[in-house]
Amino acid sequence: MKRRDFITTSTALAAGGLLSACNDNNRRAIDYSKIQEKKEKKLASIHVNYNKKVTLKLATSWPAHFPIMGTGVENFVQRVNTASGGSLEIKLYPKNTLIPALAVFDACSSGEIDIFHSGPYYWKGKNSAFSLFSGMPFGMTSEEINAWMHFGGGYELWRELYAKYNLYPMLGGNTNIQMGGWFRKEIKELNDLNGLKMRVPGLGGEVFAKLGVNPILLPAGEIYTALERGVIDATEWVGPYLDMKMGFYKVAPYYYSGWHEPGSILELSFNKERFSKLSIEHRAILEMASEEMNAKMTYEFQAKNSLALSELKGKGVILKSFPSDVISAAKKGLIDVVKYESAKNSDFKEVYKSASSFLNASKSYSDVSLKKYLTLR
Ligand code: CA
Predict the structure, then answer these.
(1) What is the Å distance from ligand 1's center to 214 Cα?
(2) Among 6, 144, 178, 296, which is disulfide-ready with 261 (CB 3.0 to 4.6 Å)?
């Protein structure tokens, strides 16, 4: 074909195509949707043939239907089932129905179950670095920790360390900034903390210990009675919504803003070998659904905490911030805790280095954006 002929023909074709598209817009739209429908049917048949039905066992550290954490996992299970056209079934075992709450890590590592939903700070006895993946006092918020995981090397470090236990972790929710806890008496200065018995776990507990507090660990079911009877003087838990359900406001009216758990993550961790043997579609569905759960739990905490706080105010709760001498002592205490843990464990040192350098960079931006904005609105 000569060049001039080619240009003429192709221009005419293009113009004709455009005209007919303009004239028969509706007819063409119907045609396309039919084509699409056919394609989808064909894909669905391939999908069913390719992905044989798989059943996975998921155990959690929460009771059945536990608000946000428990119900969030239930929603995840349903979403995976729907997205996979029923080819991926997850059998859900809430706390203690198959595996004791704090045995889920080992059960998944050994392959007794395939997935667990819990929190990395529970496993700090295995490796103190794990507590850092949950966040640390004066550390990252939920938004920052998600950014560090996805784009700052957090996921790589977490997966590398969990691989030693044959585990493959994913983010599975975030409590966002936790409240500093319920106190029977007002804390007016650092000295008021001296000798206080407080239910507070993790790195936060280690820092409170530097302030003269006796950190105590109690099972969830025993905290209220201990606080009521004065066996403990204070307790932290999560945030307004879950704290209100525990009833702490009835026996300890002083409710402090927090710094010890600014963005604690929840985890959805898989038996690594089992996960790697799943089809590429099933793995993609699980990754997308866990990401959805991670986001939605965070939003649910934000929404429900806001409502619960105004309800708590109506019940006469006294909102407080820790005095400045407590905050500066806590920041100094944190430095000591980090030095101590880093000297004992090179994994802790490495994870802290990555998390703290990401936090410092993030702070310099947040200081001129989020922080400024929050004081303006
Ligand atoms: Ca807590």
Answers:
(1) 16
(2) 178
> Residues 358, 148: contact at Cβ < 8 Å?
yes
The residue to which tokens 């409710």 are assigned? 255
Q: Rounded CA gap, 325 and 71, in Å?
A: 40
Q: How many CB atoms lie within 10 A of CB 96?
A: 14
Determine the 3-state secondary structure of 44 from DSSP. Answer: helix
Q: What share of the chain is helix, strand, coil (3-state, %, to 5)?
A: 60, 15, 30
pTM for the full predicted model: 0.85
Q: How far is the CA of 258 from the centre of ligand 1 (A)?
A: 10
Alpha-helical regions (H) of 164-201: none
Block means of pLDDT (10 residues each) for the chain, 377 residues, are: 46 42 50 73 59 94 96 98 97 96 97 97 94 94 97 98 98 97 98 98 95 92 96 98 98 98 97 97 97 98 97 97 98 98 98 98 96 96
Concatenate the DSSP letters of all residues of 324-351 into one string.
HHHHHHHHHHHHHHHHHHHHH-HHHHHH
* CA dihedral over 275, 279, 280, 285, signed as positive or negative: negative
What's the rounded Cα separation, in Å, for the pair 56 and 280? 16
Question: Quick check: helix, strand or coil at residue 115?
Answer: strand
Of 235, 267, 266, the residue nearest 252 (C-alpha): 235
Q: How far is the C-alpha of 326 from the C-alpha of 184, rounded, in Å?
A: 17
d(CA 59, CA 278): 19
Ligand 1 geometric centre to CA of 22 (Å): 61
Alpha carbon of 347 to ligand 1 centroid (Å): 24
SS3 of 82, please?
helix
DSSP state of 286: H
Q: Cβ(265)–Cβ(119) under 8 Å?
A: yes
Q: How far is the centre of ligand 1, averaged over its atoms, from the C-alpha of 361 (Å)?
A: 26
Q: How far is the CA of 235 from the centre of ligand 1 (A)?
A: 9
